[in-house]
Specification:
The protein is of the alpha+beta class and 159 residues long. 27% of the residues lie in helices and 39% in strands.
């Protein structure tokens, strides 16, 4: 299986932001994102939960998502939460997206999304480079939009 691998990390609480988010608040946001993805990632058009173990710390949710750009194409994902810090999104083609909450040496919080995208594009080709560049922009947007959405929901008392 050939994959394109990439990741993006952003600080959760840069100096200019308010309110400051805690790990439990970010975790609650990621759990909401599993079940209500379009609220966090504008590229996702719909999200329908098919099954839910209802354990927010170590649970599994199966869901079906569509993307705004291609609403007819449905993808079933298995979302596995672990330890209040990580969510794995298993793709039907073998790909994997992981969301991590991590802490820096000074106690600052970070959100990282990693992507293992299955692709048959030839290594070193212009097409593969263009695909990776596009995915890297989407990864950045997904992390930043997720943090912004969580902060907004905390301000509104939704998390």
């Amino acid at each position: 299986m050939k994959t394109v691998n990439l990741a993006f990390t952003a600080p959760i609480n840069p100096p200019e932001t308010s309110p400051k988010l805690s790990t439990p608040q970010v975790w609650a946001g990621l759990q909401r994102k599993v079940r209500h993805a379009p609220e966090f990632v504008p590229a996702i058009g719909t999200c329908r939960v098919l099954s839910d173990s209802s354990d927010p710390d170590d649970g599994t949710v199966e869901r079906e998502v569509t993307f705004a750009a291609d609403p007819e194409h449905k993808i079933k994902e298995k979302c596995v939460s672990a330890g209040g810090l990580k969510v794995d999104f298993h793709q039907p083609d073998g790909g994997l997206i992981t969301n991590y909450i991590s802490e820096g040496e000074g106690g600052e919080l970070f959100l990282t999304y990693t992507f293992q995208i299955v692709s048959d594009l030839k290594e070193g080709s212009e097409e593969r480079k263009a695909f990776r560049d596009k995915q890297a922009k989407m990864a950045r947007m997904a992390v930043l939009e997720s943090i912004n959405s969580i902060r907004k929901m905390v301000k509104e008392g939704k998390l």
